[in-house]
Automatic annotation (TrEMBL):
Pathway(s) per entry: Amino-acid degradation; L-lysine degradation via saccharopine pathway; glutaryl-CoA from L-lysine: step 4/6
Source organism of the structure: Conger conger (Conger eel)
An example Gene Ontology molecular-function term: 2-aminoadipate transaminase activity
One Pfam family cited in the UniProt record for this chain: Aminotran_1_2
Protein name: Kynurenine/alpha-aminoadipate aminotransferase, mitochondrial
Length: 432
């Protein structure tokens, strides 16, 4: 029997590099200075004087007719260094959103007991790569369901870990298969020093990139139970959470996290802007703190300017306005998805198969009778002026053959999608 709530020993998860990170004294003073009243005279810190900067103020027009105004004073702040964890007003807005959407059990934990915390990252990619570097030591066994996001493989593989592929289908990772993999180990060994029991599981729970798979609530609950049994952490990489086509949205791992073993990456890339580079890491404070220490020593913080811009937008909208905007984005992608599905039906029915994605922006297509799509897509399709991604790039071993291609329904018009599939169909026929 597992206890209602485990006592987590976070230090056993940190790599030597992460454990060695110390707060930057200058960063601490900068953050203190920014929280101080104007009566405080600061000769500390190395911040430049924004009066010397060439920018004066900015007005950004929002499509709904509103404006985001960075007046002279706000602009000075926007152009200045800021806290490594993110600007306070964006953090508090996001913390409330996370509480309302996920109601994380960890919100009421003690700090040492893994209280939910959050930090801003420069896109969720920064959060992911820093999380991997915090947790993955060379030789570690890491669980994930491949094919997976190539950016994850790019961040994980150089860390020298052994990636174990957990079988999955259109409903995500299969808990029975995970249990089977884990049965090589004794759960009692998990906490022993030097144990090879995996300490990290990574998955994309909604609208997986590239497969479009979305994990059911039951599967998440089963995987979470296994995480408790074998004491591993779950990295929930969920940039397509807000692009779910069905409501109610699926419960997240974060919403089930009684122990404080889930670290979740969110992204504004698919709903507000990919170029502004705003993402979030939400998880137990001892883990988020380590990510922030890494930020202190690398980028120092996400652009203050973009954080202020996004924060003003969100405070102006309120949560309801934000979710209304998300609904509009979802409607757009739903139409795009449906257009892609009907073109796939028209041109590829006998040549390929696929499942309907419940979230995200990708259709994962298996070409029948094509053992590997690499040459077909990167040479032949290019000649016919149609760009797709051959499935192999999402495999743990990218040279392993893959009969799949990934088609994104985000950018092209329904007419272009139709023409692209027509060209793909003729290519497949030529190849057979
Ligand atoms: C699964 C997944 N994770 C993370 C990212 C990184 O997104 P960003 O850094 O723009 O937030 C992407 C981008 O496509 C993705 O598909």
């Amino acid at each position: 029997m597992l206890p209602d709530k485990a006592v987590m020993n976070y230090s056993r998860f940190f790599t030597a590099v992460s454990a060695a990170r110390k707060p930057s004294p200058i960063r601490i003073i900068t953050e203190l200075q920014q929280r101080s009243p104007p009566s405080v005279i600061s000769l500390a810190g190395g911040a430049p004087n924004p009066d010397t900067f060439p920018f004066h103020s900015a007005t950004v027009k929002v499509k709904n007719g509103a404006s985001i105004v960075l007046d002279e004073t706000t602009m000075k702040r926007a152009l200045q260094y800021s806290a490594s964890s993110g600007i306070p007003e964006l953090l508090s807005w996001m913390k409330t959103l996370q509480r309302n959407l996920h109601n994380p059990p960890t919100a009421s934990n003690s700090v040492a007991g893994g209280q939910m915390d959050i930090c801003v990252t420069t896109g969720s990619q920064e959060g992911l790569s820093k999380t991997f570097e915090m947790l993955v030591t060379p030789g570690d066994n890491v669980l994930l369901d491949a094919p997976t996001y190539s950016g994850t493989l790019a961040a994980l593989q150089p860390l020298g870990c052994n990636i174990i592929n957990v079988p999955s289908d259109q409903f995500g990772m299969i808990p029975g298969a995970l249990r089977e993999i884990l049965s090589r180990w004794d759960p009692a060994d998990a906490k022993k020093p030097g144990s090879t029991v995996p300490r990290v599981l990574y998955t994309i729970p909604n609208g997986g990139n590239p497969t479009g798979a979305s994990m059911t609530a039951e599967r998440k609950a089963d995987v979470y139970q296994l995480a408790r049994e074998y004491d591993f952490l779950i990295i929930e990489d969920d940039p397509y959470y807000f692009l779910q086509f069905q409501k109610p949205w699926a419960p997240t791992f974060l919403s089930m996290d009684v122990d404080g073993r889930v670290i979740r990456t969110d992204s504004f890339s698919k709903i507000l802007s990919s170029g502004l580079r705003i993402g979030f890491v939400t998880g137990p404070k001892p883990l988020v703190d380590r990510v922030v220490l890494h930020i202190q020593a690398s980028t120092m913080h996400t652009s203050t300017f973009t954080q202020l811009m996004v924060s003003q937008l969100l405070h102006g909208w309120g949560q309801e306005g934000f979710l209304n905007h998300v609904d509009g984005v979802v409607e757009f992608y739903r139409k795009q998805r449906d257009a892609m599905l009907s073109s796939a039906d028209r041109w590829l029915k006998d040549l390929a198969d696929w499942h309907t994605p419940a979230a995200g922006m990708f259709l994962w297509i298996r070409l029948k009778g094509v053992a590997d799509t690499q040459r077909l897509i990167s040479e032949k399709a290019l000649e016919k002026e149609v760009l797709l991604i051959p499935g192999g790039v999402f495999n743990i071993d990218s040279s392993a053959p893959s009969p799949f291609v990934r088609a994104a329904f985000s950018l092209s018009t329904p007419e272009q999608i139709d023409e692209a599939f027509k060209r793909l169909a003729s290519l497949i026929k030529e190849a057979l």
